[in-house]
Amino acid sequence: MTVSRDHYFVLASDIEAERIKAAVGLINELNEANAEDEWEYALKRLIKGLSSSRASARLGFSTCLTELINIRISNGSLTVSKLLELINEHNKVTSSMNGKEERAALFGKLFGLQCVSNMNSGVFNRDGVDAEDFKLFIDNLIELSCTKSWIREPALFTVLGLLRSLTGKISDDLVIYIFEKLDENKLSLTTEGLAIFLAVPPQFRSTKLSSVEFKNTTWKHADPLHKSNLSLLTKVLKDISTGDEGEAEEGKSKKNSKQKGSWSPRLHFVWQLIVSELSTSSETEVIDEQVDNSKKRKKHSDKKNKKSKSSNSKAVVESDSLQISEFWKVVIDESFFSEKASHERKYWGFEIFGLFFQAVQPESVDSIFTQNFMRTLINQASEQSRMLNKIAKKTLTAITETCKIQPLKTVPVLQNILLGQYGALHFDRLTKSKTTEILLSTDAPNDALAKIFTSVLDRDNDDKDAKFKDQKWAIDQLLHLVRSKKAKIDKTSDLNWVDQILKSLVQKAYMSAKPASDEEQDEVMEDQEEEDEEEDPIVNFAQERLNSIISDVISVERADNQTWSYKTLSLLLSAIESGAEPIFKFDDELNTVKDKSLKILKKIRAKRESQHTDNSRLLVFELLFSMVTLQLFSGDAESVNTLQELQDYYYDTKKDDDEDYDKVIGIVEILLNFLSQKSSLLKKLSSIIWENWCDKVNGEDDFSDESMDDEQMMAIDGQLAKIFQQRREALDTVQTGNKRKEEKIAAKETIVSLKHRVVDLLEIYVKKCPNNPLIIGMVSPLLSGMHITLDKSLGVKIHKLLKNKVCKSKISDTSALDKDELIEKLKEMHKNSLRTSNTNDYNLSTSQCSIFIAKQLVQTDKALIDEIIDLYADLMKQWFKKKNGRLTSSMFFDFINWLNSKRVQN
């Protein structure tokens, strides 16, 4: 049986599946034929094919050759020396070859030698590796590495791979033979030689290699990472052509060193070995230190002396090996990131940083954020036009991605890039990145993150503008930290870190800086008098951000059952008790109002802790009193009247033993006051208060003209009138011109904002009380507001409320509904639907609301269906006659579809 020659052509295919199929087919046919001449032909043909210029030929031929070698070596038909002889013979470089042919021959020989070293070939994967075969193979590889600079790296990488795979399987003499050959060819002080030294265990280097007498200069103590080799190590790792022509030291070394070819962005394989060994030694050092610190002191002095001696000897041993900090500073920071380093070398530096940052322990992160690295990183990331901008951005991304996986590195990274000697508070702004923002969202310890920024608030700086900017930045970061963690905060979470943030902000927002001694206090008082008691600009900003933080967490329950506003007020009062001086000074009248409110708050807290029956009502009062009292400490003028109203209202509701909640009017007044102010905190506070109070509203609390007496009507109207009067007075004080136009726009925005928030409260009511008949009373006012508003977003919000909430409500008790009133509502909606100024959303809402009212009528009395149909029939007649009306036929189709569903049900 003859073996098909077609397999050899398919082995060079670019398709991997075809190459594998051809290799399997060829080996099977050779086994079946089992002819010596076919085996010989196949061996030579495959070896020759390794030098083919076709792109995938070497892959296919080397795969098949590896299996063929395994078969021939196993049955004793082929020896290693004969195999190496064939590889050298058929991949010989001659003087007549051009550069391309020479390159093909050398790589063919390399692939052939790699087939031999491959464990699948079975050459060295047997019990008892033949020493002569091994030495001959090493001789061939090292000889090949010396032919051309560009072949040295892959050739010696093959040596490295073989050495690693045979660890423990070959004698120490054979391992030493490799290093003797490296020394003989002056390859020990190359990056590849360095890698091979690091490939053997440190113990072998210190016990075996260190005793070998090498002919040429090599690593002291046979350990490249020994401290005495630091200078030499730096030169070896720099001894790669990167285009640095201005460095004199490197220029001298080029003459005597074995240089490589052109620069490549790919890092040399030696760096993985360096990083692995340095990070392992660093990890061991950290563990040893932790163990030593955890040991208790021994009682007997002789044991203490023994321990001291052992620790000292250990320190001596450890001091002989390079640590990450020493290596990084000299080899990387002062070499790869120096000002004179080329862009190519800096590029490598960034890649090396990525390897180190992933491998080092959190305790060693500080070691690699050094001066030159930080300068280069910030400079290159700052401008898109920079040569290394992309790799700098990639490095920043690598930092954040690694911190997501290893969150314990987040805090040391932030400390270095923000607070470190070579960092900058505004690191993100300088690098045009979101590094800090992303790092804050990792799972790092929240208390440690908060401490980074609170420490900035305590910094002292003679430059007031710089101090203000730094504190403003730190407060913003604290707010961002809370917001980034908000989704993970719940009642079971440890909230001490949030409390610490609140404590720091309370100090800045409400307390003046207190001098350390009486003399300093006198000096400060004099300075304050000269400056007319100029207010710290950070105060208002801190108050705003403090309110924002409370707003973000106010809906989160605390384990201690306190509201966030009360907790903040408690921190403020604790600071005062500790001797802090409030910024806002209280007169006797304000002190009376404040003390009365704090007294009421104390009673409320006592009742809430005793599991009071109406805890939701007490929650509302705790929120109101604590929040408004905080406003009082900030000097808010309106808070005084609001607190007095709250106090009166609290005592009034306390008298109602029969749970008569007709006093909801008072809550509405306060809420309207809150809603009129531009504050997201007050908006959320209003929502929470209303959510806990709206279920107290019943039929007797209906705010219609019939159910409210004159005094109640005037209370609501008075509060609304007060809001509008404030806007009117603001307008009257402004002269005509641009300022008046701006005020008019602001007034309009205030009214629209108030309407938005009122709609939000109505939505809360519908969610809280979805079956309450009072929902029907919302329909007409909401439709009216939707019609008259010029704000598109408000109209859309009302439309969604009517469509998704109000009209889907299922009223539980319709017996008390007034049929005539509902009929009149339906007639009014039909009449308004014919207006020419209606929008499409208004018409859709009218259609939905009409059917909603019709449902309630039918639920009250099924006989009313005829009257409802008549009303729709009358509307259809008017719609047909009024050609310019905006009403569409969809209103009638909606009604017919509803009628059809009712007919099917009946």
UniProtKB/TrEMBL annotation:
Region named Disordered: 286-314, 513-535
Acidic residues composition-biased segments: 518-535
Primary localization: nucleus
Any Gene Ontology biological process: regulation of DNA-templated transcription
Amino acid composition bias (Basic residues), ranges on this chain: 295-309
Keyword Nucleus assigned: yes
GO molecular function terms listed in the Swiss-Prot or TrEMBL record: rDNA binding
GO cellular component, one term: nucleolus
Identification of the protein by name: DNA polymerase V
UniProt source species: Cyberlindnera fabianii (Yeast)
